[in-house]
Specification:
single chain, about 140 residues, alpha+beta, Alpha-Beta Plaits, six-stranded mixed β-sheet, 3 helices, DUF3168 domain-containing protein
Length: about 140
Amino acid sequence: MTHADIVALLDALATEAGAKSFWHGKQAQADINYNTPFPQAHLFLMPSRIRGGRITTQVAMCFYGLDKHENGSADSMHIQNEMDLLTQKFYGLFAEAASVELVDDVMDRVPVLRKGASIGTGYLVNFTLSSLVEC
């Protein structure tokens, strides 16, 4: 798979899992855009390795729910829980993706709180995909 193919696949899977907007590359590294729907999926740059006719791609994505400065701890806990469920569903969708596989069937997840001018509550997921070289 090419880089663009992987981005498109991750967009489709994140959307199917419940993300309402998807950001990647430069867009994902900018502040959270409060003018677009939540939950948001942010895909960061993906290093990869070619070996033995396969490409392994390291993926880091963050799923954010809508959080605001005036929200209390109970609101943040609810958002965190919703993003927990969304990432579980996202993980489950890889079983149906024929063109890639999760290496060792592993997805690491870390709860996150993003602070500053834009804040976000959610989960960062890290995993490695394996796919065939295109040519």
